Amino acid sequence: MASRAAAAVAVLALVCAAVHSSEGQLSPNFHAATCPDLEHIVEFHVAETFRRDVGVAPALIRILFHDCFPQGCDASVLLKGAGSELNEVPNQTLRPVALDLIERIRAAVHSACGPTVSCADITVLATRDSLVKAGGPRFDVALGRRDGLAPASSALVGLLPAPFFDVPTLISSFGNRSLDVADLVSLSGAHTFGVAHCPAFEDRFKPVFDTNPAIDSKFATSLRNKCAGDNPAGTLTQNLDVRTPDVFDNKYYFDLIARQGLFKSDQGLIDHPTTKRMATRFSLNQGAFFEQFARSMTKMSNMDLLTGNKGEIRNNCAAPNRRVQDIETAATGDEGIAADM
Questions:
Q1: Which of the residues 21, 89, 107, 108 has an alpha carbon 20 to 30 A from that of 271?
Q2: Which residues contact 89 (CB under 8 A, 6 or more apart)?
Q3: In the predicted model, is pLDDT for residue 339 greater than 70?
């Protein structure tokens, strides 16, 4: 009798587990049974690429942001072909080295574990590990995302915040995606590393030096002189953070105080009364910045997910499974990243 009761409890537990899984609940241990080496595989490939190119870290953060913001973290930004998000203006400078890294990790994971882990999960894990490599905080990642079947529309991609946005427009843009002011100020701090192309910030010195918000005149002069040689347009790049351009730290907020914010959207954070206090605090307290950035990254990486039976596990990150045979993996040669989030 006791054994029957125990068996009944075991069956009930399995049923509950199945129901839990079908509802698509995320969990840090979602792949523990099916792919126990997942995080080791991701960490290895990220470390190898980071060793050759530290710029892969800001490139991955930008890919994740541009994936999550339009329609949720479903790896739709990785899709190639007609009508893809990669063809939209904000995504045309996403770095191929980072896109290729995600696909190489996917191939290694599927070789080791079978097609059990989504490109969406891999993108989040790779971003987290590269952030740590660059000196940033480790943020919590729950797993179990599924990949989208189609790219976001042009209208949705158009919702991405632009580098010329003022603070009220940024607050509205983030708020429409359930991200608050703390998320805005901290996630903007991702501009503490990486580079941008001249067309993304030429409004800071053309036709005259920007006064709203104001830019340091020497900094504006250096940008104007540098970008005078940008031919063809978009060839030259500029470090987003003039102090420690390859390290994830809080020096971005020092730049804002010195009026050396590269984008209008950055510099405004230190002037607007809604964001000034937090931006100033982050300049004085890197720990506070890291703590909020980690929270905001976790929050952003859980936006509008496909789980359970929704979406799919792609066999190639660049294509839905129905046309995977027609897709080539991303090329490895590229220059820079226009971090215009």
A1: 89
A2: none
A3: no
Question: In which residue are the tokens 């097609």 written?
Answer: 115
Q: Residue for token digits 């982050």?
A: 282
The yes-or-no verdict on residue 305 having pLDDT over 70 is yes
213: cis peptide before it, omega within 30°?
yes
Bridge partners of 239?
A: 195
Torsion of CA 70, 71, 73, 79, to 10 degrees: -80
Q: State residue 25's pLDDT score.
A: 84
Residue 322 binned pLDDT confidence (cut-offs 50, 70, 90): confident
Q: Binding site annotation covers 191?
A: yes
| Nearby residues of 13 by Cβ (< 8 Å), 6 or more positions away | none
CA distance 174 to 314: 29
Does residue 120 sit in the same domain as residue 218?
A: no
Specify the number of domains making up the chain.
2
67 is in an annotated binding site: yes
Check whether 74 is labelled as a binding-site residue.
Answer: yes
Instruction: State how far the alpha carbon of 235 is from the alpha carbons of 55, 106, 195, 204, in Å.
Output: 17, 31, 12, 18
Rounded to the nearest angstrom, the gap between the alpha carbon of residue 254 and the centroid of all alpha carbons in its chain is 23
| Percent of the residues in the chain that have a pLDDT greater than 90, as a whole number | 87
Is 161 a known ligand-binding residue?
Answer: yes
Residues belonging to the active site: 66
> Does residue 35 or residue 4 have the better pLDDT?
35
**Is 192 assigned a ligand-binding role in the annotation?**
yes
315: domain range? 25-158+303-326
CATH number at 141 reads 1.10.520.10
